[in-house]
Amino acid sequence: MRIFKKIMKWVGLTLVVLLVLGGAFIAHSWYFKPVNINIFFARAFLQVALESPEMLSSIHVLEQFGIKGHNAELDDDSIAAGDRLFDHMKESREVLLSYEDEDLSDGDIMSKRIAMNMMDMLVEMEKFRFHNYPVNQLFGVQNGFPSFMESTHQIDSTSDAEDYVSRLSQVGRKFDQVLDGLYRREELGILPPQFVVTKVLEEMRSFVATPAEEGILMVSLTDKMKEAGLAEDDQQRIALEARDQIESTVYPAYERLIDYFEVLDNKVSENNGIWALPDGDDLYLLAIRLFTTTDYTPEFLHEFGLSEVDRIQSEILDILEAEGWDVSEGFHPAISEMAEDPRFYYSDSGEGRDQILADYQTILDEVSEGLEPYFDVMPEAGMEVQRIPEFKEKTSPGAYYQPPAMDGSRVGVFYANLYDIKATPRYGMRTLAYHEGIPGHHFQLAIAQQQKDLPFFRRVIPAIAYSEGWALYAEKLAWELGFQDDPYDNIGRLQAELFRGVRLVVDTGIHYKRWSREQAIDYMIMNTGMAKSDVIAEIERYFVMPGQALAYKVGMTKLLELRDLARTELGDQFDMRKFHNVVLTNGSVPLDILEDLVRRYIAEEKAG
Fold it and tell me: Are strands 383-387 and 412-416 parallel, antiparallel or unpaired?
């Protein structure tokens, strides 16, 4: 009975464990409509998760029940697997519709709305399932696989290390499935921008040019085996097997992908937004809905971005003038002069980069100690700062966050890009740490994982406008709470918000107004004061992730509107901690549902 209660903590995993044990009632629920909608949610999520061994390794929950077979497998990236996913979504949607609201609790109705929103969007996306670039300079099997093995595949035993080698042996199959998808896209007239081909070729050639024993796959394996304290004989045997797989399977798979892109390089010569793809304008409208969870038009978002750029630049100029800088020539000359001041940068050395990581940790420790008056729900999982792996940092964003494992075996990680030292000015570090770490993504994602009363899918699915909106809100919140009292740190905060305002302009510029890559780069350089290397990486990101960059500013704006609404409606009754609880303990939700939750909280507070 005790083990059953422990299993029940993980909503959704009940089904897996009981299926393994042969429970007749649960087996019936697996194949037919479950009596309880929460069993349906668990089943629908698990049916997707069980098709993705990599997702199961990332979540890292089944292992505590002795279920580990997935850790020896890689995902099926075939076109047929995609067919199965869309069929599953459509079937699950029909089952979900059969649950009548009058038979459900308020919480279940909310979960139904969130699930229906997600399923409707996925079903609608089927028409455009090949309208993307699955191998690009930011993500794809070519960098995603080694990153996954380094950051996610855990080794605590000899069998875990053997599973690592098993995964290496499957790389050829996985890469060939990706290649099949690339050929299908060519048949449909869907080719990537030219710069994508150049960048991924450079990345892959560098990867295979590195001797196996020096590459991230071998170094990660040997480090993990040593840290786990495996027997020396086992370490040597497994290391030899791994090197053999890298040389005989992994590198040849990369070479096949390289061969494909070398041929493709002769077929592409332009850098266009998705408007150039078949039905590209319709796809962009859908992307805006997907990422912002709103019906905003690209024209509205473009104009909103322009107005925000003007407002924020004016605030920055006021601070610069107060600090004695010459602002008579306008924003770009003034911010550029400040950005050239060497006092704001670390030394371009290994020691300088180590100091950046140490200073990030100090910033996070400081803010962690001062948040109790504003949050009464805190993350249970820890968090640390690491450098983005060097093999991929040249084309990676400035930073990103990886959530902790749900069983507590892996902490959350704030990854910082240290490739270009000029891209990490001291005055921008606090804001970046608050965004990626505390109280930003780490709070939002780790706290969502803790909500045992929510269906499992609500604790792990992303709603980009909500999650990125929260992280941008966290930047402003930290300033409001006094953690950025240095005027230059406030410039860093405003620059980060300005950057998100500029994103509205350039994303809609590229995909709606048909701007060129160079036009978008020039606009961002002139209006942010960012390092050119960062600007190029960002603009190229928007080409391969249409609409995603719109989510940040839209989500932050909605959160601030809802907080202002709660303050106005509740007056002296307004409690920041309660507001944050509403926002953070309901999982990742579309913005219209977030507004409903906040309005319900306001009504309950008024009612006493």
Answer: parallel
